Amino acid sequence: MTSSQIIALASPVFLLLIGLEWWIGKRRGRPTYRLNDAFNSLSLGMLSQVLGLFSALLAVGIYTAVWRHASLWHWPTDQVWTWGLALLLYDFCYYWLHRCGHTVAVLWAAHAVHHQSEDYNLTTALRQTSSGHLLGWLFYLPLAVLGVPPLVFATVGLIDLLYQFWVHTQHVGRLGWFDRWFCSPSNHRVHHAVNDRYLDKNYGGILMVWDKLFGTYIEEDDAEPIVYGTRKPLRSWNPVWANAEVYATLAKDSWRTRHLRDKLKVWLMPPGWRPSDVAAQDPSPAFALDRPLYNPPLSRQRQALAWALGLLALGGVLSLLWVAHTLSWSDKGLAALAVLGLLWLIGRVCTPPNAQA
Questions:
Q1: Structural contact between residues 252 and 105, judged by C-beta atoms closer than 8 angstroms
Q2: Are 242 and 236 in contact (CB under 8 A)?
Q3: Residue 290, exposed/middle/buried by CB under 10 A (0-12, 13-18, 19+)?
Q4: Max CA pair span of the chain
Q5: Which of 71, 313, 351 is nearest to 236 (CA)?
Q6: What stretches of 182-224 show up as alpha helix (H) in DSSP?
Q7: What's the N-to-C CA distance of the chain in angstroms?
Q8: What is the pLDDT of residues 231-281, one digit of tens each?
Q9: Which of 47, 128, 277, 299 has the fewest CB atoms within 10 Å, measured from its CB?
Q10: C-alpha separations of 25 from 66, 121, 125, 186 in Å
Q11: Mean pLDDT value across the chain
């Protein structure tokens, strides 16, 4: 069974849990869902999976080549220790990829997609980048050199990813000793915060051990309510622009600066850094923690149309993930373009003509 088929099988479970979380929030009088934001997150998740049918081959291909030709030895796939140690090492590599994704601008350009939602719920977990495979594979090459087989690497990577789904909720509180050792809802809420106190903390995928070892762990504080999103709000429901926005900003600053060194530094410095000459001519808006949510009102007709298009897109994407391994590259390309157009249309439906960015 392919990884895309596993995702297709897991999707009904994800959707069931999303519905359960929505119902719990309604019962508790603590709603954490908005239709437009949830659709945008789900659209980005679907787009990521479809484009991953192409881009993931880059990461897997490079990993496999390094494992075949440069590994120190090959680990046995029939030993329990192989799988357990591989998962531990994968989570360690993920920590550094995740940390650099918040501290290196070009990596943030990919990872920012996951943080753009100003809500925090289980649809946020599915809000994934479509460009992460372009550079993310670099952080996992040590596993190939150590000899972790590609099958084991792909499997533990999927486990690490699936684990992180349940931590994207506001309806699970503190979990005592579990919070001290594992990524939990409380720990990961902190990670998605834009508050100064919480910024760039709690990177672990499964374990919080790495954050404690390298000084990036902080507990959630009830006295400091968490504000979600990014410091430069997306203010759009367009899934294509969501993936391109940070890259476009970096490219624009790199083009406009007069200093050759700064043209490169734009991509490698922490997010928010800008060349002095560009910042002087076009200063960035000041960050405000109490900013209003981007929430243009939707008529009932637009809501109904968004639901219809969303269900159509979901059915198409799940079908594509299930049969992708049997399709030619041209057929997969045409299907991906159709999905892209449909998801873009959902974003347009969720954006009334009078919406202000």
A1: no
A2: yes
A3: exposed
A4: 61
A5: 351
A6: 185-191, 209-213
A7: 43
A8: 999 999 999 999 999 999 999 999 999 999 999 999 999 999 999 999 999
A9: 299
A10: 47, 10, 17, 17
A11: 95
To the nearest 10°, the Cα dihedral for 127, 133, 135, 139? 90
pTM comes to 0.94
Report the pLDDT value the prediction gives residue 164, as an integer from 0 to 100.
Answer: 97
- pLDDT for the residue 174: 94
| Two structure tokens written together for 237 | 């429901």
Please state, in angstroms and rounded to a whole number, the distance separating the CA atoms of residues 255 and 239: 25
Mean pLDDT for back-to-back runs of 10 residues, the chain (357 residues): 90 97 96 96 97 89 95 94 98 98 98 98 97 95 97 96 97 96 98 96 98 97 95 96 97 96 96 94 90 93 96 96 94 96 96 73
Contact 75, 147 (CB under 8 A): yes
Closest Cα to residue 185, out of 168, 202, 206?
168
CA dist 122 → 21, 79, 148, 170, 341 (Å): 8, 34, 31, 9, 25
The encoded tokens of residue 310 equal 């969303």
Name the one residue in this structure whose structure tokens are 């373009």: 337
Nearest to 18 by CA among 30, 33, 3: 33
What gap in Å lies between CA 118 and CA 193, rounded to an integer? Answer: 10
| CA distance linking residue 283 with residue 274, whole number of Å | 9
